[in-house]
TrEMBL record:
Species lineage: Bacteria, Bacillati, Actinomycetota, Actinomycetes, Pseudonocardiales
The family this protein is said to belong to: Belongs to the thioredoxin family. DsbA subfamily.
Protein name: Protein-disulfide isomerase
Organism, as annotated: Allokutzneria albata
Pfam families registered for this protein in UniProt: Thioredoxin_4
Stretches the record annotates as Disordered: 46-83
C-alpha cells in the first residue's frame, strides 16, 4: 500500500498562494471504519497518534471525484448539517455558504487558522449572514487532543463552547503542539466563566460526548481527511491553513453561485 502524503507538511513547504491538491486527502483507504470507531469509545482514552491515521473507505453517496483545484472539487454537500441550535456552529442555518472545519486543538496549523483567519471570516461573512461555520473535532495527536475536544464540548453544555474553543486556540503555540493536561482544561473553564466546574469535570467522562467526537472522526475518515485543518466549503475541499484571500475568493464565488 502506498504511503499518503501529509497535507500539513505539504502546506508548510508550499508558497502562501500554492494550493494543495484535493486528491491528497480525498482518497479512499483500506482500513475499515470500525477501526476508527475504536479511537474514541470512552472519554479520556488515547486514540490519536503523531502518525498520520489511515483513511477509511469513502462513501459514494452524493459524491463525485474531486479535481486538483483544492477549492472546486465537489465532495458531498450533505457534510454540512445545518442543524438549528447546533452549539458547535456559527451563523445562520440558511446561510448560502457553509464551511465545515475538521481540526485538532493541538495542531499548530489549526491554531493559525483559528487565530489569523477565522475571526476575519466571522466579521466579514458570518455576521452578515453569508457564511455558516460548522466545527468538527478531529483529534489526531493523542489523549490530550481528545481531552481538549471533550473539554470544549463539556463547556458547551453550559453555553461556553465558543469562548472555550477560542481561548484554547488563542493561547496555543504556533510551533509544536499545545499541552492540555487536565488541570489546564479546568483552568480554561474557569477563565471563560463555566459556572459549574464539578459538572464540567463530570462531563469530561461522559460517553455521550466521546460519541459525538467519534462521529466527527468517522465522518472525516469517510471523506478521507488525513491531516488538519481540513475544510469542506459547500461540498468542496480545502486543505491547510490557507491565506485569508483564498477563503474570501472561494466564499465570494460560492455566494454568487448560490443566488
Amino acid at each position: 500500500m502506498s504511503t499518503q502524503s501529509d497535507p500539513q507538511q505539504d502546506f508548510a513547504a508550499s508558497k502562501p498562494d500554492q494550493r494543495v491538491p484535493a486528491s491528497r486527502w480525498l482518497v479512499p483507504g483500506l482500513v475499515a471504519v470500525a477501526l476508527v470507531a475504536l479511537a474514541l469509545v470512552t472519554a479520556g482514552r488515547g486514540g490519536g497518534t503523531d502518525d498520520e491515521p489511515a483513511a477509511a473507505p469513502q462513501s459514494s453517496a452524493r459524491s463525485t471525484t474531486p479535481t486538483d483545484d483544492g477549492t472546486t472539487g465537489r465532495v458531498d454537500e450533505s457534510v454540512s448539517r445545518r442543524k438549528a441550535g447546533d452549539p458547535y456552529a456559527l451563523g445562520r442555518v440558511d446561510a448560502p455558504v457553509v464551511l465545515v472545519e475538521f481540526a485538532d486543538y493541538r495542531c499548530p496549523y489549526c491554531v493559525k487558522f483559528a487565530t489569523d483567519t477565522k475571526p476575519e471570516l466571522i466579521r466579514r461573512y458570518v455576521d452578515s449572514g453569508t457564511l455558516r461555520i460548522e466545527w468538527r473535532d478531529y483529534p489526531m495527536f493523542g489523549e490530550e487532543s481528545e481531552m481538549a475536544a471533550l473539554a470544549a464540548r463539556a463547556a458547551g453544555r453550559q453555553g461556553k463552547f465558543w469562548p472555550y474553543h477560542e481561548l484554547a486556540f488563542a493561547e496555543a503555540p504556533r510551533q509544536g503542539r499545545a499541552s492540555f493536561p487536565r488541570e489546564r482544561l479546568v483552568e480554561i473553564a474557569k477563565r471563560v466563566g463555566v459556572a459549574d466546574l464539578k459538572r464540567f469535570e463530570a462531563d469530561l467522562a461522559d460517553p455521550a460526548l466521546a460519541e459525538e467526537i467519534r462521529a466527527d472522526m468517522v465522518e472525516g475518515r469517510r471523506l478521507g481527511v488525513s491531516g488538519t485543518p481540513a475544510f469542506v466549503l459547500n461540498g468542496r475541499p480545502m486543505v491547510g491553513a490557507r491565506p485569508l484571500e483564498e477563503f474570501v475568493a472561494a466564499i465570494e464565488r460560492l455566494k454568487n453561485t448560490a443566488k
